[in-house]
Design goal:
alpha+beta, Ubiquitin-like (UB roll), Threonyl-tRNA Synthetase, Chain A, domain 2, 2 domains, five-stranded mixed β-sheet, four-stranded antiparallel β-sheet, 6 helices, 12 strands, globular, binds zinc ion
């Protein structure tokens, strides 16, 4: 197997087999670093801890002390929210779920309005999925195949049509959930330790009031309950 050279932030270099993952390099440095790792930075770009490194690279392991890691963490919580909503209300259409300065949101389209009781149910379902320790697994899909697969999910279809290259990345969360997303994410749901759903508000697809009306569920997430 071919070898790659990994350069760490202190300038030191290590040889690894091609395909080694950042989480494995973190673990070799210290278990504590691996436990606190949220995401990697590879040649300047955020990168999954479980993504294979296939070329020489500069690698930095980002921990919970890093503000960009908090964004990745919050965005990963938004995926957890979407997975919970789909388990409880499978007729729901998914919009987008970005991190925000104070937390995250996910936009949904559903005929019935989400009630405060629904939010409680969704939050409980999120904890249930969190406890399953599901990996955020990256899957590469061909654009044509993706458009066919998402044809009943009109917002995803539109985004794939507009943004995807010939191949695009998707992330699974268990056997039934997959979301068109560039990533990266935390390695698995058990990394998500503290979150709270805050409210439901109205939103429009792509923020344009001429477009479909959506329901936005807003939440917040932190690295610990403190
Ligand atoms: Zn994502």
């Amino acid at each position: 197997m071919s070898q790659i050279t990994i350069t760490l932030p202190d300038g030191s270099q290590q040889q690894h087999a091609s395909g080694t993952k950042p989480i494995e390099i973190a673990r070799a440095i210290s278990q504590r670093l691996a436990d606190d790792a949220v995401v990697a930075r590879v040649n300047g770009n955020l990168f999954d801890l479980t993504g294979p490194l296939e070329e020489d690279a500069k690698l930095e392991i980002l921990t919970s002390r890093n503000p960009e890691a908090l964004e990745v963490y919050r965005h990963s919580t938004a995926h957890l929210l979407a997975a919970a909503v789909l388990e409880l209300f499978p007729e729901t259409q998914l919009g987008i779920g970005p991190p925000t300065e104070a937390g995250f949101y996910y936009d949904f389209q559903r005929d019935t309005a989400f009630t405060p009781e629904d939010l409680e149910k969704i939050e409980a379902k999120m904890w249930e999925i969190q406890a399953r320790d599901l990996p955020y697994e990256r899957v590469m899909t061909q654009k044509e195949e993706g458009l066919e697969k998402y044809k009943s999910a009109w917002m995803k279809c539109q985004l794939i049509d507009e943004k995807a290259g010939a191949w695009f990345s998707e992330y699974t969360l268990g056997p039934h959930f997959i979301d068109f997303c560039r990533g990266p994410h935390v390695p698995s749901t058990k990394r998500i330790k503290a979150f709270k759903l805050l409210m439901v508000s109205g939103a429009y697809w792509k923020g344009n009031e001429k477009n479909a009306r959506l329901q936005r569920i807003t939440g917040t997430a932190f690295f610990s309950k403190k």
